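Working notes for the structural subgroup meeting. M.R. asked for a predicted model of this chain before we commit to crystallization trials. I am recording the input and output together here so anyone reviewing the notebook later can reproduce the run.

Input as submitted:
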Amino acid sequence: MNPRPIRKCKSALLTLGFCLAALPIWAQSQEENLAAMRLAFQQLNYMAAHSAGEKVLQNWQKLLPGQLIEVYQVLGVIAYTEGDFFKAKEYFESALSLAPDLKLDSLYISPKIQQFLQEVRENLAKNNGQSATALRYVVVPDPRPRAAWHSLLVPGLGQLQKHQPGKARLMMITAGAGILGTAVLHVRREDARASYLAANTISKASSAYRRYNLLNRARSGAALFTAGVWLYSFFDALSAPPPQPALRLGYAPVSGGGKFVPLLSYQFNF
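Returned structure, recorded in C-alpha cell form:
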C-alpha cells in the first residue's frame, strides 16, 4: 500500500480536529467579551474594543441594562474618534434611549465628544420627548457576514455563531463524515490502483481495474457531497436570518433616581 495517501488522510483528520478543538475560542462568554472590551478601550486599542463590543451585542438579551449602556457608550466614543459621526450618533441614541440622563466621564472623554452627546440628547428630546414610555431600542450588528466567513473555515461554525446549535451540529457531523469518507475511499482507491499496476495476469488486472474504477467514482461522489455541504453551510450562514426570539419582558432604566420600568421587547432581524 502506498503510504502517501495515508499521510494525507491523517493530515486532513488532524486539521479537522484542530478546527473543532478551536471552537471554544469563538464561544467566549459575555463576561469575557465585556472585560476584553473594557481593557482594550482603556489601552486605546479601539479596533479590539470595537470587535469585542460587537460580539457582546450579538447576544444582547443576556446583558443587564447597565452593561448594554456601557457597550453603546464605548462604541459611540470609538465611532466618533474614528470620524464615523453617523455611527456615533446611532450608538449614542441607543444608549440615551435606555438612559436619558447618560453622562460620559469627563476625565477620559474629550469635551468635543461630550458636546456631541449633548447635541444628540437635545435632538432626541425635541423629536421624541423624554417620557418613561418613550420608545427604547437596541441596534444589533448583522451577524451574517461574520458567520459566513466562519462557515467557510469550518462548516457549521457560522450557524453556531448565529445561535443555531442544532443546525451547527448537523453541519459539522455531516461535513466531518464526508471528509472522513472521502479520505478512506481515497486510500482504498490508491490501494486498488497499486494492485492494478502490480497485476501479472489479465484476469487480475481486470478485477483490480473494476475495483479501482468503482472506488474512484465513490471517492469523487464523497468529495462532491462534502463540498456541497461546505457551500450550503456558507450560503446558509450568509443569507438565512438568525432565529427570531419570542417577546421578552425585562426592565429599562428611566431618568431620575436609578429607577427601572417594565419593558416588553422583541428583536427584528433584517
